[in-house]
């Protein structure tokens, strides 16, 4: 029997299915694994940060994108926001317990990717060379 190209996976003990178009877990997965979400979550694993500290740490993120990312992660219960009524106002962001678990899993993937870059770069070079620079 031939193996299907994309076998259906069912986890009967889980009430959500990220592969289903309308499942809310898909949106959370996008928030956590998108470029800015994953970098923000992993940066916050180092400890609480103020907005501008995060912006400096996550090099290249715009103020608007970081703000949108933090709002989405806060809504999902991954990040908490603590606003101090000082002058000027002080706002700290930190991971919730759920966020720390997400960050730990993301950091494993990030470290794996960083450690695999020699192989990735060699594969890119081989691919680009075989396609005549297209």
What does this structure look like?
- Helix content is 54%, strand content 10%.
- The protein is mainly alpha-helical and 134 residues long.
- The protein has one domain: Winged helix-like DNA-binding domain superfamily/Winged helix DNA-binding domain (Arc Repressor Mutant, subunit A, Orthogonal Bundle).
- A three-stranded antiparallel β-sheet has the order 1-3-2.
- Strand 2 and strand 3 form a beta hairpin.
- Helix 1 packs across helix 2 and helix 2 packs across helix 5.
- The longest helix is centred in the last third of the chain and has 19 residues.
- Keywords: DNA-binding, Transcription, Transcription regulation.
């Amino acid at each position: 029997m031939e193996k299907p190209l994309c076998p259906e996976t069912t986890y009967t003990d889980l009430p959500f299915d990220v592969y289903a178009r309308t499942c809310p877990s898909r949106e959370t997965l996008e928030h956590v694994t998108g470029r800015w979400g994953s970098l923000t979550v992993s940066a916050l694993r180092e400890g609480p940060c103020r907005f501008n500290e995060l912006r400096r740490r996550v090099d290249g993120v715009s103020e608007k994108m970081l703000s949108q990312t933090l709002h989405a992660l806060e809504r999902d219960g991954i990040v908490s926001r603590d606003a101090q009524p000082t002058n000027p106002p002080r706002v700290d962001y930190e991971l919730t317990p759920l966020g720390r678990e997400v960050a730990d899993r993301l950091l494993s993937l990030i470290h794996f990717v960083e450690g695999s870059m020699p192989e990735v770069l060699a594969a890119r070079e081989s691919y680009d060379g075989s396609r005549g620079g297209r």
